[in-house]
Amino acid sequence: MIWNETKECMSRDEMTNLQSARLRKLVDYVYHNVEFYRKKMQKIGLLPGDIKGIEDITKLPFTTKDDLRDNYPFGLFAVPNSEIVRIHASSGTTGKATVVGYTRHDLDIWSECVARCMAMANVNKNDVIQIAYGYGLFTGGLGAHGGAEKIGATVVPMSTGNSKKLTTMMVDFGATAIACTPSYLLYISEVLEQEGLLDKIKLKSAICGAEPWTEKMREELEKRLNITAHDIYGLSEVMGPGVACDCKFHKGLHVCEDHFYPEVLDTKTLTPVKPGETGELAFTTLTKEGIPLIRYRTKDLTSISYDKCECGRTSARISRFKGRVDDMLIIRGVNVFPSQIEAALTEVKEVTPHYMMIVDRVNNLDTLEIQVELDPKYYTDEIRVIEAHTKKIGHVINQALGISAKIKIVEPQTLVRSEGKAVHVIDKRKLF
Amino acid sequence: MTAKQLSVFIENRKGRLSEVLEVLKSNGVNILSMSLADTTEYGLLRLIVNKPELGKEKLTENGFSSLLSDVIILKIQHEVGSLQELLKAIEEADVNVEYMYGLSIDGEEAYVVLKSSNVEKTGEVLEAKGVETLLPEDVVKL
Prior knowledge:
The structure holds 2 protein chains of 2 kinds.
Chain A: H1 5-8, H2 12-33, H3 35-43, H4 65-70, E1 84-90, E2 98-103, H5 104-120, E3 128-131, H6 139-150, E4 154-156, H7 163-172, E5 177-180, H8 182-194, E6 205-209, H9 215-225, E7 228-235, E8 240-246, E9 253-255, E10 260-265, E11 279-285, E12 296-302, E13 304-305, E14 317-318, E15 323-324, E16 329-331, E17 334-336, H10 338-345, E18 351-362, E19 365-374, H11 383-401, E20 406-410, E21 425-427
Parallel strand pairs in A: 3-4, 3-5, 5-6, 6-7, 18-21, 19-20
Antiparallel strand pairs in A: 1-2, 7-8, 8-9, 9-14, 10-11, 11-12, 12-15, 13-14, 16-17, 18-19
Helix pairs in contact in A: 2-3, 5-6, 8-9, 10-11
Chain B: E1 2-11, H1 16-26, E2 31-38, E3 42-49, H2 52-61, E4 65-77, H3 82-92, E5 97-103, E6 109-116, H4 119-128, H5 136-141
Antiparallel strand pairs in B: 1-3, 1-4, 2-3, 4-6, 5-6
């Protein structure tokens, strides 16, 4: 089923016209409502009228995560708080979170986009869907929730953290769909297997996102659970989940490009690459009111295609992600920057600022180990003191990252020192 | 009252313990007693040696995290119940024993290395009971 044929199956010309009209309006809107954009445009001598169509987008400056941080919390909002009805936040590169705000209209658009994705995953109003993303500041839970309600499905807001309850309800409620991270779903499949519930479930679709995963993992999930699994993409800065999703043909993720204009950029020159070539993905939010973003650099590496899909949709498709431009990691669905760990460790006087992160996937769940050295003054002959240090460091890291990590204290002078580009991360998962 | 204990933090890696011992050996540091407390990730090696300061210096030079701390080495009779009686007295003084290990020497007497939460108080208890404790210079003679 196609949720919105008018928008998802437009001819390329119609889409270009729509995008052009929306971009003109957007540029005018941000110029007059967001000082940050006005100043940036003035600096390069650009006026709203200079942007005549979507082809002029390359004249506009980029926006980055650092811009959001520098204007923390509400500096890039285009409307007063009286118009904002919801706030979400994700990890920033350092201590400060990346904050986004939504107007009522933004939430409607968001639900519309997620509804399109649900339809791509063959979820409709007859389905019972468990939303097992975290509810809260993270966009996953409430974002998927809104779209599932929009499409009329019976929504079970599970959130995360209680797998036993999830599997029980999956059976008892006859859940036919689930939205969660792919690694969590793999874990759930094991729990189902252990409890002997695999033949008692009615699951047929999964909408998985918030972390990169491979084709191989999709096949494994589909086989284990006898379902079709779909890859949903999004980032809180742009909107949240629902920016793009793959249909049953799994040949790339259809972008809701009437709302989010995608560009794939050469990583060195930052000029658009040809369709099919890999580069950094950037989005311009064509219709967003709360925090509109112009050419926001996602740091995700992908390629784009404009061919019509076998499903009938004409929307641009982005390939499965091929990596990151920066050092951001996604662990258990949470964005983690090594710099956050560095910043957190400076608060702990018992340790040196040197660290090593070891990310792995054990029994389909991401694990994070952080190795640290104690400051020589704090090595002791008592285990309980070392254990108290470990606990304290673990607490500080948990506060900073939003996920727990295993802390391992190693001998002094054994961790790599930051000299230029020191390697601080060993990621043993094979995600790309 | 107290003597010096040399302790070393070692990761649970193959061969690491023997590397520590290698450093001590090549510098003529003799081990009189040792205890190894282990966790899944690391171990704490506690040693009574004839030259604690030299041991610490050489271990630090070789990149080990070592530490000197004050412990009490007390002499007890090689008899059933003698240690228990002493511990009871320490406990009555409301002092915790952090850890303890034996230092055995041929003969009628035995030694116990003890780290307590309150050295002074422990000392008073031992003195009242007329227990002999070893000073650094006594350790060298063992």
